[in-house]
Amino acid sequence: MRKNPIRHLKVDDLEKVALRFRCLGEVSRLRIVQSLMGGEKNVTEIVTFTGLSQPNVSRHLTQLVTSQLIAKRKSRQNVIYSIRDRSLAAICSIVCQSVKS
Questions:
Q1: Where does the pLDDT of residue 1 fall: very low under 50, low under 70, confident under 90, or very high at 90 and above?
Q2: 48 alpha carbon, distance to own chain's centre
Q3: What does each C-alpha distance from 25 to 15, 20, 28, 80 come to in angstroms?
Q4: pTM for the full model?
């Protein structure tokens, strides 16, 4: 039988888990995550991939960075974003497979 890690989390840690789920509960943020699954991108590349406006993308990126799902780093004139939490791919895969028609 597999262990269930959620059974042993403290309330503070459960808050962090809830923050991540809330963050992923928005279509625009999922589109941004989808774009980053293909590798690192700057804001312009994410805007092009998602079709969202630059201010909208920037706002959502802030939420994703705050929730520690994605990372950002400075590279010359650009800020580059990437997937930080490697479990994100597994989470998305499980949920996406469950809703496939």
A1: very low
A2: 18
A3: 15, 9, 9, 23
A4: 0.84
- Residue that is written with structure tokens 């690192």 in the block: 40
CA-to-CA distance for 29 and 9, rounded, in angstroms? 26
Q: Distance between CA 64 and CA 1 in Å, rounded?
A: 33
Neighbour count for residue 12 (Cβ, 10 Å): 7
Quickly count: other Cβ atoms within 10 Å of residue 64's Cβ.
25
At 65, list the tokens: 């960075």
Query: In this structure, are residues 76 and 85 in contact, taking their beta carbons and an 8 Å threshold?
Result: no
* Residue among 69, 75, 74 at smallest CA distance from 91: 69
Rounded to whole angstroms, how far apart are CA atoms 13 and 15? 5
- Please give the distance of CA 94 from its chain centroid, rounded to a whole number: 15
